[in-house]
């Protein structure tokens, strides 16, 4: 006990606001469920694995830790709802713990001291830092599409017919259905829901009741929770809605939400299930074949696309050095440590160890623990409008974000993300003068258009769509073998990318806006080329949609047709004359009105029409769908005069703090906010894309006499021939929800990564991917 007393001054009790990291080690993915458990420092409340706790103790001088061990076992049915019990002890220098002085007698201290007891109790009681981050992220999540408050919330008529609904034992009043039941909130009728195309659901009795009575709102029984939430559908609004008075409306029929339990899946959960049952599911997951699980380095569950030489491997090899020098003093160190941790988790093989024997009846989810990079996700998502939430997140946007953060935090060292980066050449041909202008810009992925009008089986697709409509009307089930998707040759997509684009732009030769051709080429070719298939657009009902399409992506690729060479003999450059100062734009009021009638903010509609050059409703609608998540989406349209300076600009302090937490100076963060009108999300994108010229821009802003030219990014370049090495597929019929699956080729063999399942791929669905990673071949 005397030895413990020597450390009393360093033992702290967690207070409100203290972050307690008791879920996983700071340097690897060991958890309380790992064989050696997790050691939580009673001074900093940081968690450490057995591998790292000794070195941490020696460096920090903190010697008292809470040893958390948690055994995972299947509970009997009667105890499934009991809270999980944690096995914990306070230990110094014990077997399985750390040993600051091996030459001295070993001690084990249980919770005999009040201070230590309070600290331990505080740690066990405290919500973990990662759990709090999950809750915060979930607060910004949305279920597919945002549900609107029903117009009937305050005016709903409820009949005094004496109906009282029991808490369970429901049945449709017109058939034998006991699931998918809907309670009409006007007359209390319990009726079954719609029949789905695949034969599931109900017998349409609820919707038929509305057609007779026009009673508008129904709630799905079985989805009512004790906090008063449930699925509510408005028949005349034809949508899922929010009913803020739902508790009162249910109480009218004797339903006390406090005693209700959720027993059925919500419509969102059913949509996800349907997506998983959809006919592309079996192909993408290869569920119809016997998959052999794989283990070892590079086969840890949660495999990601960017495990390519020179990127994650760079952090893997530098991991020891990074951890040895880590002091947690700045955001760059935090990012590099988490990248090193992720690389170690994926590539070391530590979390993909093959069991001694494999029970064929055991679900492959239980064969290896894998990794759950909660700290990594929290860190890289901090301050981002999308990635700091639990919304459905686009894998291409996430990869871009990671590459930008890697570049930002690679000061003084080679940027490992450069293996993806290339220089794009945009050539503009003036129709009035025939002169040209070449503009280069950096990029890190190649978006490949998907021209649906070029499908080689258009007749079959049209016939199938008609069959779907007829089947839905007659409640007939279409079998998977009858289903048809559009087939588009890869060469057609490539040709679309290479073709000139017609735009309207200011010509210094004509001194006005004229028609121009824009031709895009690649000035350099990276070591690893990421290709995104643009498989989404706007449907006839103006709703964002995902294309159901098959594209024969080649495993060997030659992109020499896209090579750009700059100004060619005989071409004359457009003179470098600035466009006139902006003036109040002419905006097509009719297009603005059409968009506004769809429910979008008026200023957003004006902005969409202006920024698409009054080129039509479809173009403006596409802009709206792409930018409706922007923080300034509904702000008034501002035409920026780049020749004027805003000396009275005041940067948002919260935005400054967030950008500075990413490693930028206050001056750099202020410049980014100034350039984006204090929009934090746009400022983050702006500062990452201009990081090579920040000092030059700041000097120019201050009016310095000599402004050094911005350093031009360096690019790798080489032959334009590639081999496919990985691809990511998105499952689901909606762009708002779904599931990602990854296939990676290693040592000439394809492997499928699907959550906790890592197996040898038998039939990789090369034609159904969303993002493709190609590696350059030298010959």
From TrEMBL:
Pfam families: UBA, UCH, zf-UBP, zf-UBP_var. GO terms for molecular function: cysteine-type deubiquitinase activity; zinc ion binding. Residues 148-257 form the UBP-type domain. Its EC number is 3.4.19.12. The keyword Zinc-finger applies. GO terms for biological process: protein deubiquitination; proteolysis. The keyword Nucleus does not apply. InterPro entries: Papain-like_cys_pep_sf, Peptidase_C19_UCH, Ub_carboxyl-term_hydrolase, UBA, UBA-like_sf, Ubiquitinyl_hydrolase, UBP13_Znf-UBP_var, USP. Zn(2+) binds at residues 172, 175, 192, 205. It catalyses: Thiol-dependent hydrolysis of ester, thioester, amide, peptide and isopeptide bonds formed by the C-terminal Gly of ubiquitin (a 76-residue protein attached to proteins as an intracellular targeting signal). Keywords: Hydrolase, Metal-binding, Protease, Repeat, Thiol protease, Ubl conjugation pathway, Zinc, Zinc-finger. PROSITE patterns: UBA, USP_2, USP_3, ZF_UBP. Residues 287-777 form the USP domain. Residues 586-627, 650-690 form the UBA domain. Belongs to the peptidase C19 family. PANTHER family: UBIQUITIN CARBOXYL-TERMINAL HYDROLASE, UBIQUITIN CARBOXYL-TERMINAL HYDROLASE 14. This is Ubiquitin carboxyl-terminal hydrolase. It comes from Homarus americanus (American lobster). The gene is Usp5-L.
């Amino acid at each position: 006990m005397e030895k413990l007393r020597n450390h009393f001054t360093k033992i702290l009790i967690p207070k409100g606001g203290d972050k307690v990291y008791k879920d996983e080690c700071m340097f690897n993915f060991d958890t309380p469920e790992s064989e050696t458990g997790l050691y939580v420092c009673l001074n900093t409340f940081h968690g450490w694995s057995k591998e790292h706790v000794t070195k941490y103790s020696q460096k920090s001088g903190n010697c008292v830790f809470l040893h958390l061990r948690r055994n995972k076992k299947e509970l009997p049915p009667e105890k499934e709802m009991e809270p999980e019990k944690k096995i914990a002890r306070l230990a110094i220098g014990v077997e399985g713990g750390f040993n600051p002085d091996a030459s001295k007698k070993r001690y084990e201290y249980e919770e005999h001291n009040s201070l230590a007891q309070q600290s331990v109790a505080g740690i066990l009681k405290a919500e973990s830092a990662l759990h709090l981050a999950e809750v915060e992220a979930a607060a910004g999540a949305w279920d597919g599409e945002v549900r609107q408050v029903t117009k009937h919330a305050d005016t709903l008529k409820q009949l005094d017919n004496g109906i009282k609904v029991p808490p369970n034992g429901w049945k449709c009043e017109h058939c034998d259905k006991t699931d998918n039941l809907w309670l009409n909130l006007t007359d209390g009728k319990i009726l079954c829901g719609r029949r789905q195309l695949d034969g599931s659901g109900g017998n349409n009795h609820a919707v038929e009741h509305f057609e007779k009575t026009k009673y508008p709102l129904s709630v799905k029984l079985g989805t009512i929770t004790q906090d008063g939430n449930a699925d509510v559908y408005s028949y005349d609004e034809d949508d899922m809605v929010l009913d803020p008075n739902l508790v009162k409306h249910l109480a009218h029929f004797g339903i006390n939400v406090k005693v209700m339990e959720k027993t059925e899946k919500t419509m969102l959960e059913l949509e996800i299930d349907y997506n998983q049952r959809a006919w592309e599911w079996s192909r993408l997951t290869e569920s119809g074949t016997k998959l052999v699980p794989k283990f070892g380095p590079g086969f840890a569950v949660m495999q990601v696309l960017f495990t390519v030489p020179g990127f994650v491997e760079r952090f893997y090899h530098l991991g020891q050095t990074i951890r040895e020098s880590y002091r947690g003093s700045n955001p760059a160190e935090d990012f590099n440590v988490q990248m090193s941790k992720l690389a170690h988790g994926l590539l070391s093989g530590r979390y993909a160890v093959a069991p001694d024997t494999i029970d064929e009846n055991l679900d492959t989810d239980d064969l290896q623990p894998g990794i759950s990079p909660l700290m990594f996700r929290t860190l890289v998502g901090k301050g981002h409008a999308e990635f700091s939430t639990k919304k459905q997140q686009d894998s291409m946007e996430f990869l871009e974000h990671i590459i930008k953060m890697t570049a930002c935090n690679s000061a003084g060292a080679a940027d490992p993300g450069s293996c993806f980066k290339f220089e794009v050449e945009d050539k503009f041909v003036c129709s009035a003068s025939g002169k040209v202008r070449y503009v280069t810009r950096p990029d890190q992925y190649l978006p490949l258009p998907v021209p649906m009008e070029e499908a080689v089986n258009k007749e079959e697709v049209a016939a199938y769509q008609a069959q779907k409509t007829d089947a839905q009307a007659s409640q007939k089930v279409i079998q998977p073998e009858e289903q048809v998707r559009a087939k588009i040759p890869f060469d057609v997509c490539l040709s679309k990318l290479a073709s000139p684009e017609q735009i309207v732009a200011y010509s210094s030769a004509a001194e006005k806006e004229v028609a121009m051709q824009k031709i895009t080429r690649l000035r350099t070719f990276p070591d690893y080329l990421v290709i995104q298939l643009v498989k989404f657009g706007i449907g006839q009902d103006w709703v964002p949609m995902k294309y159901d399409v098959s594209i024969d992506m080649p495993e060997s690729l030659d992109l020499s047709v896209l090579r750009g060479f700059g100004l060619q003999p005989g071409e004359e450059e457009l003179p470098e004359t600035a466009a006139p100062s902006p003036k109040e734009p002419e905006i097509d009021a009719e297009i603005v009105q059409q968009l506004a009638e769809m429910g979008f903010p008026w200023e957003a509609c004006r902005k969409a029409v202006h920024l698409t050059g009054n080129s039509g409703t479809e173009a403006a609608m596409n802009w709206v769908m792409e930018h409706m998540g922007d923080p300034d989406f509904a702000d008034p349209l501002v035409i920026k005069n780049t020749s004027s300076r805003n000396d009275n600009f005041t940067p948002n302090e919260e935005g400054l703090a967030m950008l500075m937490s990413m490693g930028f100076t206050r001056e750099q963060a202020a410049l980014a906010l100034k350039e984006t009108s204090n929009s934090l999300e746009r400022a983050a994108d702006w500062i990452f894309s201009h990081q090579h010229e920040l000092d030059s821009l700041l000097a120019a802003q201050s009016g310095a006499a000599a402004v050094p030219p911005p350093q031009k990014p360096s690019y790798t370049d080489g032959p334009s021939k590639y081999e496919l090495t990985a691809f990511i597929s998105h499952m689901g019929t909606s762009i708002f929800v779904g599931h990602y699956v990854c296939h990676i080729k290693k040592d000439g063999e394809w492997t499928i990564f699907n959550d906790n399942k890592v197996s040898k791929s038998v039939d990789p669905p090369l034609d159904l991917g969303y993002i493709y990673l190609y590696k350059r071949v030298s010959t």
